[in-house]
Amino acid sequence: MDLVLTELDRAQAIITDYLGMAGQKSMAKEKINLTDTLNDITTLMTSYANYKTVKFKCEIDKDLYVFGDPIKLKQVFINIIKNSIEAVPNMEGLVTIHACLLESTIHIKISDNGIGMTKEQIERLGEPYYSSKDDGTGLGLTVTYSIVKNHGGSVKYISEVSKGTVAIISFPLYFDTSSDYSHLFNENLSG
User: What average pLDDT does the segment 125-129 reach?
Assistant: First the structure.
C-alpha cells in the first residue's frame, strides 16, 4: 500500500509540474510499448484496488506502441484507473481494462460497475476545477485531457447512473518504419 501511496504522491507532483508548464507543448517523446506500460500500471494499482475491494480484469493486446512521453502517459492511466476504482465505493467493484488495435488506432477502454455519471457530469469532465467527487480538485482530468490531446489522442466517456462508466482513450499507433504492420490491417479488414 505504501508503494501505491508513494506513486499517487508522485502523480500529484507531476500534475503540479504540468500545470506549471501550461502553454509549453514540448514533451520528451519516444517510442513506448503501451502494453508494458498498462501492465505495469495495473500491477501498481492492484494494491489500491484490493484496499478498496475492487477487482481488476485485464485484456491487453501485445505490441501496442505509441509515440509519447512515458511519464505523462502513465499519469493519464493512473488518473483514469484511480477514478474508476473510487467510483465503486462500499461494494464489490470491478474495473476492466481492455486495450486493442483497430486499424491504425489503439483503443483503451477502462470500465467500472460503479455509481456512474449523468450526461451533465460527463459534459463537464475535463473542465478546470470541476469534479464529480466531493473531495476532488477538478484538475486530474483537466491534465489528463490535455496530455492525451498533446499525444494526438482522444478521451470519451460513456456512463449510466448506478450502472457504471466506460472511459475510452484512443491514440494513433506508432509506426516503426523498420517493421511491417500490414498483417494487422489485413486481419482486421478481412474479418
Answer: 76
**Cell numbers 467510483: residue:** 87
Question: What average pLDDT does the structure give for the chain?
Answer: 83
Q: Please give the torsion angle defined by the CA atoms of residues 122, 128, 131 and 134, in that order, rounded to the nearest 10 degrees.
A: -170
Three-state DSSP class for 91? Answer: coil
Q: Is the pLDDT of residue 151 over 90?
A: yes
Q: How far is CA 34 from CA 41, 106, 133, 170, in A?
A: 10, 9, 29, 12
Instruction: Return the C-alpha cell found at 106.
Output: 489503439
Q: Spell 106-140 as b/e; 16+ CB within 10 A means b.
A: bbbbbbbbbbbbeeebbeebbeeebbbeeeeebbb
Quote the cell numbers at residue 167.
472511459
All structural domains of the chain with their residue ranges:
2-190
d(CA 97, CA 49): 13
Supply the CATH classification number for the domain 2-190.
3.30.565.10
Strand spans (E) along the chain? 30-33, 54-60, 65-68, 93-102, 105-112, 154-160, 164-172
Rounded Cα distance between 163 and 152, Å, is: 30
Length of the chain measured in residues: 191
Phi/psi of residue 154, nearest 5 degrees = -145, 160
